[in-house]
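Let us practice reading a record.
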Amino acid sequence: MGEEINKLKAKEIVDYLDSLFTNPKCFLNYNKDYELLIAVMLSAQTTDVSVNKATETLFKKFDSLNKLANADIKEIEKHIKFLGLYKNKSKNIIEISKALLNNYNGIVPNDKNELVKLPGVGNKTANVVLVELFNKQEFPVDTHINRIAKRLGIAEENDDILTVEKKLKDFFKNFDFIRLHHQIILFGRNICSAKKPRCDECKISKLCEFYKKTK
């Protein structure tokens, strides 16, 4: 019975998100595969809008992996200094570029185990790259997705990110993870925000544990 209830709940959530966001897509701008990898790495603790602002000038100035790998770190810092953790991220840009050239023939690997070997690339960044570049059915968990999974009772409050990811995959196993990933982020930004969620406008509030507790 519990599994059947979850199936119905999952479908209701998916149908609602489909009605809100018909053409969800990646929010980061990029023209080359390695540019996406670097942009996702830069997005940690930073908004996509800020990352897009930084990469617009960064990738114009350094328009190849070779140029990034051989760049002066101070020059990199100038382009991304308004991003969180910019000093460490500047170092990562250079080291990622070197690693791609030296170990992967300049090609972004399509294997998670290889991706997480790169400087500054963790599980979430690797998942985003696999989703966007290789259309793999992964479920990257950012702050919005983590919050909403817990509010909807799909995950528990004390679950870590990897546990949340597994529970989301199990809960939405019959649906497109890639599409859902983008939709839930948009839902978290536009409706189910951290501080002032618009619960009265939300059509799935009856499924929401957070709503039940606060109303």
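A brief commentary: Residues 109 and 167 are 26 Å apart (CA to CA).
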